[in-house]
Design goal:
Order of helices and strands: HHH
Shape: rod-shaped
Structural class: mainly alpha
Radius of gyration: 18 Å
Helix content: 40-55%
């Protein structure tokens, strides 16, 4: 599985710490403030494919 975004663990840890200090944290706002990804739309999509790229191309041609 390939990730399009590199994760900086220190920024994620800082964002988690900031979120834990607030009673009702706005996670989207905290994620933007610390420059980290948040939410299902930012998660990498798994590649559940039966064929690799070469096999798929051969079928199309």
């Amino acid at each position: 599985m390939s990730y399009r975004h590199k994760i900086d663990e220190s920024r994620v840890a800082e964002a988690c710490k900031a979120a834990s200090l607030v009673e009702n944290p706005n996670l989207s706002q905290i994620a933007r403030q610390y420059g980290v990804l948040y939410g299902p739309r930012t998660a990498p999509k798994p590649e559940n494919r039966a064929l690799d790229d070469i096999q798929e191309e051969a079928l199309i041609l």
